[in-house]
Design a protein that fits this description.
By secondary structure, the protein is α+β, with helices and mostly antiparallel strands. It is about 25% helix and about 45% strand. The N terminus is likely disordered.
């Protein structure tokens, strides 16, 4: 259960989702192309995150926070520090988690293809890989003042069983918020702060991926 909480709950916006414009065929805005290119230049980033999970049957959201590290060549390091400690590392071949009791779980891509499919989407968001996202979602885009928004609507029936839509928002070439609407009506709002980008991770940060 904790693994699912960290990874896939792995919101709200300036624009209504319906105001975003579909980016398809000839209807691709120059601003969206430029944003995609800028996002794709990210090699590494570090950020703090705060997360609110709004469950229909609960009056109050479930709150959590922690640290995120992304490296295009390695993957994602996702460390939850509150309300309990837990770590998830996602790379190109597997997902590894360690919970607050020290229990380690490794899931290989070939063993759980559907589960790992979600992690690929997660990686695509932070790498600005819109070509990969196009395989799984209809992509929408909008710009208001200096803040952009990208909306994602699932294409496949498998994804639709889990997700209704996703909204990304940010400024310049940085993702500041991810909102996930689940098919069961639950909503997850993830906010990122103190985002720092670099051409390469420090040795200390690279070692964090070695679970």
């Amino acid at each position: 259960m904790k693994l699912m909480l960290i990874v896939f709950l792995i919101p709200f916006s300036l624009l209504a989702f319906e105001d975003l414009k579909l980016q398809s065929g000839k209807n691709i805005e120059p601003e969206f192309k430029a944003l995609s290119q800028n996002l794709s230049t990210t090699k590494t980033l570090k950020a703090n995150f705060s997360q609110a999970k709004k469950i229909k049957v609960l009056k109050r959201p479930l709150l959590s926070s922690g640290e995120l590290i992304f490296d295009r060549s390695i993957g994602v390091f996702w460390k939850l520090t509150k309300p309990f400690e837990s770590t998830v590392v996602i790379d190109k071949n597997k997902l590894t988690s360690i919970d607050d009791d020290g229990k380690k779980i490794t899931i290989k891509a070939e063993d759980k293809p559907m589960l790992y499919g979600f992690t690929k989407i997660f990686l695509s968001i932070f790498s600005g890989n819109t070509e990969e996202l196009k395989k799984h979602f209809k992509i929408y885009y909008g710009l208001k003042n200096s803040e952009w928004e990208i909306g994602l609507i699932p294409k496949s029936s498998e994804l639709k069983k889990v997700l209704s839509k996703i909204l990304l928002s940010g400024k310049k070439n940085t993702v500041e918020k991810i909102i996930l609407w689940e098919s069961n009506g639950d909503i997850t709002d993830i906010n990122f702060s103190n985002t720092k980008k670099a051409s390469k991770l420090s040795e200390a940060d690279e070692k964090k991926f070695e679970l």
